[in-house]
Amino acid sequence: MNVGIVGSTGYGGVELHRLLSNHPSIDTCILYSSTLNGNSYVEQYPHLIGLSNESVRAIELDEMKQLDAVFLAVPAGISKEMTAKLLGGKAKIIDLSGDLRLQDPKEYEEWYKGGAADLSVLGKAVYGLTECNQGAIKEADLIANPGCFPTATLLALAPLVQQKLLHPDSLIIDAKTGLSGAGRKPSLSSHFSETQENLRIYKVHEHQHTPEIEQQLKRWNPESTPVTFTTHLIPMTRGIMTTIYGELVNEQTTEELNELYQTFYSASPFVRIRPTGQYPSTKEVFGTNFCDIAIKVDCRTGRVTIVSVIDNLIKGAAGQAVQNMNLMFGLEETTGLRFYPIYP
Amino acid sequence: MNVGIVGSTGYGGVELHRLLSNHPSIDTCILYSSTLNGNSYVEQYPHLIGLSNESVRAIELDEMKQLDAVFLAVPAGISKEMTAKLLGGKAKIIDLSGDLRLQDPKEYEEWYKGGAADLSVLGKAVYGLTECNQGAIKEADLIANPGCFPTATLLALAPLVQQKLLHPDSLIIDAKTGLSGAGRKPSLSSHFSETQENLRIYKVHEHQHTPEIEQQLKRWNPESTPVTFTTHLIPMTRGIMTTIYGELVNEQTTEELNELYQTFYSASPFVRIRPTGQYPSTKEVFGTNFCDIAIKVDCRTGRVTIVSVIDNLIKGAAGQAVQNMNLMFGLEETTGLRFYPIYP
Amino acid sequence: MNVGIVGSTGYGGVELHRLLSNHPSIDTCILYSSTLNGNSYVEQYPHLIGLSNESVRAIELDEMKQLDAVFLAVPAGISKEMTAKLLGGKAKIIDLSGDLRLQDPKEYEEWYKGGAADLSVLGKAVYGLTECNQGAIKEADLIANPGCFPTATLLALAPLVQQKLLHPDSLIIDAKTGLSGAGRKPSLSSHFSETQENLRIYKVHEHQHTPEIEQQLKRWNPESTPVTFTTHLIPMTRGIMTTIYGELVNEQTTEELNELYQTFYSASPFVRIRPTGQYPSTKEVFGTNFCDIAIKVDCRTGRVTIVSVIDNLIKGAAGQAVQNMNLMFGLEETTGLRFYPIYP
Amino acid sequence: MNVGIVGSTGYGGVELHRLLSNHPSIDTCILYSSTLNGNSYVEQYPHLIGLSNESVRAIELDEMKQLDAVFLAVPAGISKEMTAKLLGGKAKIIDLSGDLRLQDPKEYEEWYKGGAADLSVLGKAVYGLTECNQGAIKEADLIANPGCFPTATLLALAPLVQQKLLHPDSLIIDAKTGLSGAGRKPSLSSHFSETQENLRIYKVHEHQHTPEIEQQLKRWNPESTPVTFTTHLIPMTRGIMTTIYGELVNEQTTEELNELYQTFYSASPFVRIRPTGQYPSTKEVFGTNFCDIAIKVDCRTGRVTIVSVIDNLIKGAAGQAVQNMNLMFGLEETTGLRFYPIYP
Predict the structure, then answer these.
(1) Which of B86, B245, C75, C135 is the S-S candidate for B172 at Cβ 3.0 to 4.6 Å?
(2) Integer Cα distance of B140 and B124 in angstroms
(3) pTM summary value
């Protein structure tokens, strides 16, 4: 297979490059960038010396259409335009931006503060939460790859929400992320001296991943209502943890719910349910495509606390994109993604 | 004034030493330790070379009783015994452990897994949440200095709970702390390589600060019910953030609540309410006795999110202890505590 | 005293603001900035909420000339021009940039890649390495405040070089710094995700602090020759360590050299010589104006290794500037600077 | 191949487990531990849930002798005894401790403060600095795997020392390491709150890796004399950088030396020489078996500065051990070790 990465110089792009360069079914992987074309990739990423001799190329739509697959790791706003132009070519498209995730253009406009993609494009986009949408992904030509927070949140909630075990209006998601989620562009909020030995909350109730979470919850349970969603910046590079609170409809034990999760994800090689009483930490999935989950009932309040962790650049971006590519091309889901966590 | 610190070699103890050594009303500050007596303090803490020439002394109850004040920075379990022996002497006692915070011995036994202090001792203990209990603290001979999490949580909740603006059964507290809260004793969970670039959740629904929070909420609103409380370890040394979620009884705006908080804390020099739309970060109170708070209404869900940050070793321990001492001895509340944050 | 800070919005500026706001001899401290005038200072630095209500003012040379002292915390290149205009006014000037440190304009041009200050200005500038130049500093109207690396290096070398105990051509300085030395302006090299869990070397043999070190060594020993100087970026915010290697002229023991250092710095309240066998770490001077030093003879090679640590923003910048101000105005050297390290 | 890891629960052990579990020529990998036998490995390392179902076994010498290879990742002192007992069996032995690296028992006794291995054992041990000793390694039954600091130091020095381009008595090695080098056993010096935002120097002139470096230098140039070697602890988990200073015998340019290094290592897939003017950082080799090197001549002093970086747990321990195993069993050197750095 011949594939291309657009937006190859960001953190999502370089992680895609790493995964695809080591993927057994990929013959060539072309790197595109709108700003740095002509530059050698190693100049952008010196850690690749000896591993990459590619140059970054200018966007070439006609060339890209002839590839087998194109990964769009460009900012929201740009992606929808590029997708519109690429559709109809040979290449299957996996879009890592937020542009194609919301089916309702009004939601997009409200949360992304810009014009939504055309309905014709949106209509072709399949939401790529791999574990929960395998059938559609296998048939898709266009994937809207999920956001990092929605991935961690939705995998944590799927069993309970699909089975309607939570009061729909009770969901609170307290999300925490490392800094790499903010990308490679320097800014005061990602400046080392402002970030190290610091813990911040940001975009309180205003994060653009909120409607993405709510849209999927509604597909699982039409009675779903808005969630409370907050995001925090942790002084580390990689990793997301979501701590999710909800009210149980019926009294249930931690053990029962643990078993429910074990069963629900028994065929999902990248979801690991922790034994009762054990909780995952972000470092335990560092460098992998895993999503680790734990559940604990709070008997005193009738609530349940669900904890999930992912590596935001892998399961939260590039890894899930490759996982989706695998399904789209009839490959084993885990191809090229069987990593052990780097520990410590 | 002549004061003593018992348990002087822990992080709470060394922070007390720093504050009291620079306090204008303190003449001598004696350092006690049950394990390291005879050692020079600088040997334990080389950063004090040239600043301290004290030796750490063995516990001497009779000597300690003659001091003006004794700070107990010893582990729960030990503190209650020492307090019992010191009571009745000249010295006023400020206990930084959890031993005297819970008035109900059964609660203590359940959450601390050990025998509670005598009721006669508990009966004399005044809860030292300074901003909210000034009258009693001024008269007290024995202070139960609040835990770090309860301090950040209760200051964030006081205005809303006292005015009964939240549904009593809706409170969820997602707390995050730096590693210094775990003390100076090495363990795998505070080992650098296990902790750096890592985010962990621990003691889910089981943290011993839970009943301390609930007890105070009940004093403010007798209809209070159990809260959901979770704690997370952040890869940083100092700092606590609590993100608190609750349901509003009535529809209210962020601006109204902000004003309520401004008014409530208008006479509290160490509580800083952030302007609407701005959120505090832990580094912004690093090295100070401040508690910074922000409030935001989530109009879509009818909930409010409250964020508070403190330096866990200062407002969460040693600083609040000195603040209480100031009140107990008729000093200005801020004496010896007027620090600017160290930034960056 | 009334003082002003130019370049108040950088890290050097905000640290000066903290020190001067708490200095007992300072009545008013005016904040100037060329870019942000009119803005409230708290907007730049939210951690100062409740502590500062100043607005940042535009540069006003005539006003500044009437102050008692002006601190220039502006970039090299700008400082020399401003100094030229301010000279002759009432205000004594303390320049924290590199513009006035090198007496030889050719050196400046070579290392700073720009035109040097006028000789008339340079002629008035006194090098403010406080411990080693007290007489001249007390008489000065214009101080060239030393660089962070030269401060740590020169204090570590002064006793040995002044007494000609090292082969002049044998000096190698391996310097390490935290990220705050790079200032507040975001860039890829100070971007959190590029910096955390990373160790870099930079400006190998090319750092502009090299000639500043060599100039002072030559004053102490005219036979001094160029040194080898390298600098490394450590994933922490504050702190500098220099590890310095030199060949002893005569065989000497660690104990002898330790005593020499103790004697040399016996009247220097901010230099702490560590006992034989103990080495300082950067955290042990965090938040202070201390420079801690240790010496160890390498008997097998005839070399000596000298280690020094400072807080780069205090003894390496703002603290030493205030220390110099104290001397210039006949105050006790330690006024407003008696801090305990924040530990841990 | 069937292999075993003794000391499997330390950081060296778990990294060996990761590499060997993913090695295409390994059928089974048995985990041994003297203290934790019977425990499941996942209990020690929860990040391996779903990836490992092994139990840790008690040491079984007879069983181990029948394996193809045994990796000893046990502390110095224990290793030499175990090796003596295993020799003569079928299993080839790769010892990661310091016990077999020093051929002179007196050196061992002086630096390791304990009795050396028997000369009969030492006589069979081949020093496993893979790039520089391939012939002997291929024939060896017993490998003394190099220390982390010697690996980074010797690869950086080999071209210059073998060609006698440096004054033998001029070598100074300023080494810096992340905390994982200290192992998994908790101690105050690896306690997060003592380590974060801190930079320390330790074992000045006394590190036990000193004679290992000197022994190899002497093999390359018999005129070699003692080096000055210091080690620093960097607040990060993985990574070593050595900054090495030496005096050039002849005047040479950076470009000439760069070419010499390129040529010297042209057949070494894991050594990457950086282009002139570019320096490697530790993060650029994170998670790989690479050693990246840069050289810069200091024209003003006649010295050269050489910089090398490795991942201390891979090229500095487990990775090099597997690289040696590959050679010993006639496999391609890079088998199972072709990793891209995890970046950022």
Answers:
(1) B245
(2) 8
(3) 0.98
